[in-house]
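Appendix B.2, paired examples.
Example (i):
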Amino acid sequence: MKTETLRKIVLFQLALITIIQTSNMYIIIPNYNLIREDLGVSDFFLGSMTGAYIFLSGISSAVWSYLTEHLRLRRKWLLMLSLLVAGGFTYLVSLATNPAILFLLRILTGVFLGAVFPLSYEIIADFYENDKRTLAYMVWYIVSGIGMALGFGMSVILAVLFSWRYPIYVNSMMLIFIGSPIAGLLVEPKRALGDILSIFGSHEGLEYTYRFRLSDLKLVLTNKTNIYVAVEEFVSTLPQGVLIAWLTQYVVRELRSPEIVAMIFLGLGMLGGLFGVFIAKLADFFYSRNPRFRPLIAAISTSAQTIFLVVFLSLPIKLNIVEDDPVAAVLRFFSLMRENVLILFAVIVFFLGMVFNSSIEPIKNSVLSDVNLPEQRAIVVSAISTVELFFRSLGMALAGLISDITGSVRIMLISFTLLYLVSSMLWLRAVQVYPRDTEKIREIIKNKVNNTANGNSTG
C-alpha cells in the first residue's frame, strides 16, 4: 500500500480515537445537576472532579511520552491499552453510587486517556513531511471539536431519554469496542519517516533508532523557538481559557438571552473554525518556499483574531430575548438576525475570528515538530500542555476577579483578548530563529540516520 494512502487511513483512525477520547471529557459536565440530585454531591465536588480529571490527564501525558520514548515501546499497543483500561474505568463510573469511588474512577480515566494526545501527535509527526504537517494537525484539531460536540450532545440527549449514567455507559463501550480495536489496527510509521523523506527523498534502507535521554534536555531548553512558542502558548492560554469559560455568560448576561440562544449564537460563529483548514494549507504551501512563513502566518492569524474578537465584543447590541419556551426563544433570535443587521454582523465577525483562531494550534504543533528531534517531540508538547493547565486555571480565576471588580463580563473579556497581541509579538520573535533551528534539527537527524546506516548508532 502506498505511503500516502496509509497516511490517510491512519489519520482517519486517529481521528476516530480522538473523537471518542475527547467526548469522554464532556459526558459528565452537562449533567452536573442530575448527578448532584442523584448522589447528593456539591458543585464543588463536581468541579473538583472535572478539574482533577483534566489536570491529571495533562500530567500523565508527559509520563506516557517519556515511557514511550525512553523504553521505545510500540505506540499502537500503548494506545490500545490506555483506551481499553479507560473504557473499563468509564464503565465502572456509570455504575458508581459512592461519590468517593466515582471521583477516583473518573480521575483514573483521565490518567489513562492522557496517552492519546502525545502518542497521536507523535504518530502524525512521524508520518508527514515538514511541509504537510500543518494540514494534518489541522484535521486532527477539527476532529477534537467534533469530539467535544459529540460528548455534549450525547450526554444531554441520552440523559434526557434515559439517565445521566447512560451516556457514560455508551462512551465506555465506544472506548472498549471501537477505540481499542482501531488502535490495535494502526499501521505505525517508521520513526521519523516524514523527516527522512524530507531530507533524503526516500526511506528505503534508512532508519532512525535513537531514544530520548535526559541529556537531550539541554538541546530542548537552548532551542529559542521552543522558548518563544512555549511562552506564547502560556500567554495565549489565558484568553483562550477565559473565552471558552465566559463567552456563553457574556451573551446570557450582557446581551440578555437564554442559554440555548447563546449556544446557537456562538455556535454559528464557531463554524468558522472549520475554514481554518485553508490557512493551514497556506502555511504548508509557503513553508516549502521559505520556512519563516509558518510562524509569520501564525503571528498574522493571532493579530487578526484579536481584531475580530475585540470588534465582536465591542458591538453595541442587545438580544433582549425573554421567552421561556426554548423553541420560541430560538425563533425570536433568527427573527432578530433578519431585522437587525448589527446582530448578523456580530455573527460574521465572530465567525471570521474563529477562522484565524483555529489555524494557530496546528501551526504551533507543526513548528514544535520541526524544531525538535523525533524522540523529543511528544515530551516537549506534553510538558508545554501540562504547564498550560496552570495558566488556564489562573486565567479563569483572574477573570472572575476582574468581572467582580468591573461588574462587566464584556470589559473582562476584552482585557484578556488583548493578550493575544503579546502572543503575536512572540510569534514574530520566533520568525527570526525558526529557520535556523529547523535547519539545525534537520542536520542532526541527517547525521543520526547516516550513523545508523553505517552501523555507528549509539541510540
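Example (ii):
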Amino acid sequence: MGVGTVLDLMPHDDPDQIRERFRLYIRENSDAIGRSLPLFFAHVVSALEEGDERLPDPDYNFFLDGIACEVFRNSSRINDPAFDYELGAILAEHKRNGGRGVLDLVSGLHSIRRGMYHKAIPLLKKYRYIDPLIGSAIAYCYIQAGRMETDHLQSDPLLSAREQLMAMSEHRPPLVPHPLLDEEEADLLSSLFWDVYEQAREWFPHDEWFPEIALCKAGEDGDNRRYDSVLTEAISSFPDDIRFLRRAFQGALERESLESAAVILQRMIRVMPDGMEPAYYGLKLATITGKAEIFYRFRKQAIIRGIPLYLIHLIEYIFEILRRNQEGAVETRKRFSVLYPRIGYIMDLFTYLEEDIFSGDPIRQKRGLQALLPIVDRFAISVLKIGEE
C-alpha cells in the first residue's frame, strides 16, 4: 500500500479514529513513510482539515506530535540523526505553533536508553524548569556524563547536575502528564526520576521540595511501598513540616490506625499550637472514634482557633450520624439550615446519605458512610485553605 492511499482509510469525522488508523498504517508501512515524510504529513494534515470541525490549535498540534512520535518509534532509521532532524523539521512546518513538541522528549529518552547523554540534554532542556520528571532526566544525563569523564573536566557535568536540581527546587514545578509516551518510555522516565531522587537527597538533605514531589509521584503511581518509605524518611528529616505530618495523619486514618493518628496529631499541635488545621483534625479524629468527651474538647479548641461556626456545626452533624444517633442528626441538620440559610444547600446531599445510613440496608449504609467523610473533608479543606502554604 502506498502512502498516497492512506486517506482512503480515513473516517473524516472522528479524530480518534483517524489517529488509530494512522497508527496502524505507520506500524505496517514505516519504511515507505520514511522515504516520503513530506508526502505522508501532507496526507495527515489533509485528513485533519477535511474533518467536520476544525480542531483547536492545542488539539491539532497534539495530534501531529503523536503522529510524529509514532513515526519515530517505528522507523528503522531511529538512530539516524539526519532522520530525526528531517522528521522534526517537517513536524514544525505543519504545526500551527511550530516546534518539535513531544518529539524532543521521545527522542531524548531514546538517546538516554542508548547511553547518548550529551545528545539527550539539548533535546530535553526546554523542560528543565517546568517538569520535575524531565528535569530529573536532564540531571541524570549530567550525572552519567560526569561518571564517564576521565580528564580534568570530570566535575563539570556533576556541577551542572547540581545546578539543574537546584533550579528545579527553586521553580518547584508540579507533576504534569505525558499522554504521548508509550509504556516503555513512561517507565524509563519514572525510573530516572527515582534514581536522581536518591542523589538529590544526598546532595540537598535540607531541601524539603524533593521528598514533597517524590510523595506526589509515588501517590500518582499508586506505589504505596515507595510512598511510605519517602514519607517516613521525610518526617525523620523534617519533623516540624506540616505538609509531611498532614500526609502521615491521613495515611494513619486510611489504615485505621487511630493510635498512630493521635500521636501524629499531638505533634501537629506542637508545630501549630494556634492553628486551625490541628483543631480540625482533632474534630475529625474524635468524630471517627465517636468519643463525645474528646469531640467537645476539640470543638472548644476549634472555636478558639477561629474555625467558622458553620463548619463546626456541620462536623457536629456528621458526629451524630457516625454515632448512629438519627434523632440528634436530624435535629442538628434542621438547626444548621435555620442558622445558615445561604449555605443550606450543603445539607441537600447529606440528606440523601442520611437516608442511606439509617435505612437498615447494609449495602446502602456502607455506601452512605463511605461517601460521608470525604465530602466533609473536601469542604473543610477548601474552607480552611489547608495545603495552600
